[in-house]
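thoughts on both lines:
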Amino acid sequence: MKVTIIIPVYNLENYIKNTLNSVLNQQFDNELEVIVVDDGSTDNSFSVIRTIADQDQRVIVISQENAGVSAARNIGIERATGDYIMFVDGDDILRSDAVHILFECMQSDEKSILASARQVRIKSQFQDITVNNGKMNINSSDAIIKDILKGQFDVSACAKLFARELIG
């Protein structure tokens, strides 16, 4: 099974190298595909991404005129070949076991459509996506709808692993 990580980037030359390193250094035994969508950056983000992609065949680089984060994610979804999709912001840093934990969570229940971790934002150069003391949320579509309506579900796309069949 393959996981595709989609990273939209706009003017993040000071962060994207660390983000990509955290993604590419995941402790994950299955196949990993990384799609980075440069959304019309006017800084050196594209050069940084291209340099890393030239060194790692798992990285696919897409460049588009600035159209916003949603359009960048949608282009990534169109190109994704993974069974599961994860979104990471271009200034996030993943724990080294983040993908593994989310993937194992999804595999533990054949009816699961989403594995979710808590995302912690830190006001510094790095942002950490962490798990809730090792506890993951596995959700069916009914549970997600109920949690959203109760205001108990983080609707951010980040820090979640989605079943590909549901979003693309």
Remarks:
- The helical segments are 16-24, 45-55, 69-79, 98-107, 141-149, 164-167.
- The chain has a mean pLDDT of 82.
- Strands lie at 2-9, 31-39, 59-64, 84-87, 93-94, 114-116, 119-120, 128-129, 137-139, 160-163.
